[in-house]
Specification:
Elements lengths: L1 H8 L15 E2 L4 E3 L6 E3 H11 L1 H6 L1 H12 L13 E5 L15 H8 L8 H14 L4 E4 L9 H16 L3 E4 L12 E4 L2 E4 L5 H7 L1 H5 L4 E2 L6 E6 L2 E6 L21 H16 L3 E6 L10 H5 L7 H11 L3 E4 L6 E6 L5 E6 L9 E8 L2 E8 L10 H23 L4 H20 L16 H8 L2 H7 L10 E4 L8
Parallel strand pairs: 4-5, 5-6, 11-12, 12-13, 13-15
Antiparallel strand pairs: 1-2, 2-3, 4-16, 7-8, 9-10, 10-11, 14-15, 16-17, 17-18
The chain binds fe (ii) ion.
Fe (ii) ion (FE2) binds next to loops.
Amino acid sequence: MEKILARQVMHMTVSFDHGCSEWCRFGPICQITCKCDGKKRDLTFYIILITIANYREIMKMRRTIILSLALCALFFQGAISLSGQTAHFMVFSDPHYYDPSLGTEGPAFEEYLDGDRKLLKESRELLIEALVRVGNSDAEFVLIPGDMTKDGTKVSHEMLAALISELEVKGKKVYVVPGNHDINNGHSYAYKGDQEILMENVNPFQYLEIYHEFGYSEALHKDGYSLSYVVEPVDGLWVLGLDACRYLENEPGHHPITDGAFKKETLEWVESVAEMAAQENKTMIAFMHHGIIEHYQKQNRFFGEYVVDKHKRVSKQFTSLGINVVFTGHYHAQDITKKEWNNGDFILDVETGSLVTYPCPLREVKIADNRMQIASQFIESIPLYPENFVEYSRAYVHAGIAGIAEEVMMSMWLKQEDAQKLSGQIGDAFIAHYEGDEPAVDRYLDVSGVGLLGRLMILTKRRLIKELHTDLPPADNDVVIDLSTGKVIE
Ligand SMILES: [Fe+2]
């Protein structure tokens, strides 16, 4: 919070009573340390001085200043902090529920699966296992950051909602936001024999109706321009469910837009929520479908539609508003990444992999004493595969990714032998990233024995393969983080 204030006023100059005309480093609550003599001075007096000396500038930037002053007020009540705040919750993401009544066999369904990487036949059993785990835990609530269904068929949404409502019966609160597959999806198919049959999908109003009890009905505030809302599942903690999906631009009969972008009005709403949170001394965390920062270097170049548009500006804005932790999904990977600015500000993007993609994870999060402990667990068996589900699901996603890559390369006249060798390594790289805590590899790409065309073809993907194998700090699966600094506690 001190840093927010520093940013708001750093361009203003004021002569202090002791002759220092430079704005100075903020120290503990209610104190600043002046550059000129290193002495700590009371902040209250200088806020008044700055207000008087910069009246015109303040009037020009009223909205921002109102927020800052609201935050200032907290200096007298205690800073925004998670100290004393406790919360215990779970996260699972991208369940992509596919109701079995839509058809799980036949040539049309098998053909669809050939071009996908999701465990759709198993989605119901995976979801039920996740719900059992949440239900048996001591968690107070669960976050589901979008892609509730495979391609937004209404029947899948309704069946999923019925299943997760059982958690609410057990006293667990469930909060959801939409993903790119969920609303106005033109590919909401059922599969019967060799036919794909277009089924009823849902528009935003129907989505709201179906998921009414999972955040929206108890929201303290809602955005009028998206399906974003705020809830307070435990005293003092505001959870912002944010919606950056572009379903309003989807066209009937077409694949939905994968990319995410916040509307200007939604960002203004987030700002007003932060203002209220400051006034009411609430701590904020957020969850949303798209990544708020890149999870590996150049992700925005290779897969820009998985990181929210203008992520640099938006992540900085969130940080300055006091949103330092955002739970995301979308890329189906277990990955936590931190972005830190020179002044020590930070934001953590805690991405959770998909329930229908190996390693089929869930996260358990405990916040207490300004520390956030994240532990991950993985679904290792389901009734369909009681014994070898880990091997099966790993091989399934590897074959899915490698198969698509191989097909693309062979369509560009690469011989099958070379395509297989290269595509297998692309599969390995994605698996490493999906698992999280990517181990260091001596050699991330082996092109020995591959002909010139193959070497040229893989040239553009070399960097991607390297970055997928490279883990950015902090650790991805099990980690404890000091929320006041963003640093890992060993
Ligand atoms: Fe997804």
